[in-house]
Amino acid sequence: MRRRKTRRKKPKKGSITQLPWQEVVTMFSPLKIISEDEIESIHHASLDVLESVGMKVLHQDARNIFKNAGLNVNESSQMVYFDRDLVLSKISTPPEEFILRARNPKRDLKLGGNHLIFSAVGGPAYCSDLDGGRRRGSFEDLQNYMKIIQSLNIIHQEGGMSFEPIELPPETRYLDLYLAQFQLLDKNCQSYPLGKDRTRDCIDMHCIALECTREELAVNPSVMGIINTNSPLQLDIPMSEATIELARSAQVTCITPFTLSGAMAPIKQAGTLVQQNAEVLALVTLTQLVRPGAPIMYGSFSSNVDMRTGSPAFGTPEYIRSTIASGQLARFYGFPYRSSNTNASNSVDAQAVYESSMSLWATVMSHANLVNHAAGWLESGLTASFEKLIIDAEMLQIISESLKPIVVNPENLGVETIKSVGPGGHFFATDQTMSSYATEFYTPMISDWNNFDNWEKNGSVTTIERANKAWKTLLKEYKQPKLDPSVNEALIAFVEKRKEEINNAH
To answer: What is the pLDDT of residue 65?
Structure first.
């Protein structure tokens, strides 16, 4: 049999093997865990809760918006009671799909339908790596983390401050974050939507970076904010301000109640889903009262607590069931859906990986359009890990490849190839194998597929050690994306001016 010579493209020495940047689309049917009748029951129960129990809204402007729409508002108790007909009319107006712009147009994100977006971890107080351990992160640590996010093709979006840089003043550190986002990445980046000013400044800086007006940004949004309710059934002032600002500017409000069964929600999962759903519908109503058609996402972050300690538990069977059911609820309303990759482990160990793998399986099979905290999350969200960022990226690559369809055509059916080998032969040297061996199968980023003897001979390097080496390699090879000098100067000037205004106000 004639051998066909092919040249396998070797990666540059020291570089990390990665899949190219790509849209991730699933062709799988979404999983269902509850029936259509049960979805209807949760829907009507949610409306009952909003109508009879109501929601406590701490922000006067938000209460005024509800009051002006004709809702019953008790100012002394700050309670808002929702008319179901108004809710039903308002939740029908958000778009089912939309584009979220990136600084690099090739990295714009499609949200909704069968599209999956993988976003890096955002929000922890600490960072960790194999060398320095768990610590309060510095701004240099944060910049390094962002450089790795930029370098990992499988991650579509930065998560809105991977961890808090402790040495920067808390009043203005969000400005340093926004500036670093535009200087170090050309991907879409989440906002830091804690109040009106932080959200407004983010929108203004996006207008500068994308060289557009607010009106143009409203047509083609680029800002997303994760808005958390204070479960049970309360909306605080900073989240109210951010919601109103995002909606008024037609940017994306990702509404995500943080409901833990047995603590901030009923211990029965059906009750948790009712409360989560009620809180989402209340905030969707707020966004559409501010601006009909403003884009929103249905966010689910429902899990359970360890009833022995009261600690949050993630990657649990309860989390998986809630994720799948929440996806059904989001599709029922026609809302794009957000879920998360979570785990409760305190270190990058087997628990961290099996809880994350189960979380990711649930998010993907529930058709989550945004997988938040898709890479780097550790310790129930208190820590962003450099090594976990890499290990999660490997899992995300495997998932994205697994979602691709099997191509069935006459050539791929391989009848002639099977004939050429016959019984008892092998397929290593066939023309089909020799022409495709370099590209047919997934090539791992850090996984070691050597047998035990070769693994032992090469130093018995563990997964976390390979991940440590990988992020350091990516950091060393990082290439800063181009940013127009005049745009960079305008962003720096904006940050300096806002810092002066904030410092003077204090």
So the answer is: 98
The token duo for 98 is 């939309």
Whether the CB-CB separation of 347 and 311 falls below 8 Å is answered with no
Rounded to the nearest 5°, which phi and psi values hold at 323? -65, -45
φ and ψ of 45, to 5 deg: -65, -35
- How much is the pTM? 0.94
Tokens 């865990």 appear where?
33
- The amino acid that residue 270 corresponds to is A
CA 323 to chain centre: 14
Residue among 178, 200, 299 nearest 248 (CA): 200
Dihedral over Cα of 136, 465, 15, 110: its sign? negative
What is d(CA 333, CA 25) in angstroms, rounded to the nearest whole number?
21
The string of DSSP codes covering 428-468 is TTSHHHHHHTTTSSPPPSS-----HHHHHHTT---HHHHHH
Closest of 72, 68, 67, 94 to residue 83, by C-alpha: 72
pLDDT, average across residues 58-83:
98
Helix axes 269-290, 237-248, angle to 10 degrees: 50
Residue 154, amino acid: I
For residue 380, what is the DSSP state? Answer: G
Read off the tokens for 7: 């040249």
CA–CA separation, 118 and 456 (whole Å)? 34
Per-residue pLDDT of 373-383, as tens digits, reads 999 999 999 99
Q: DSSP letters of 49-87?
A: HHHHT-EEE--HHHHHHHHHTT-EEETTTTEEE--HHHH
pLDDT for position 506: 79
Contact 233, 52 (CB under 8 A): no
Per-residue pLDDT reduced to its tens digit, 419-453: 999 999 999 999 999 998 888 899 999 988 888 98
Answer whether 23's CB lies under 8 Å from 159's CB. no
Model pLDDT for residues 204-214, shown as the tens digit of each residue = 999 999 999 99
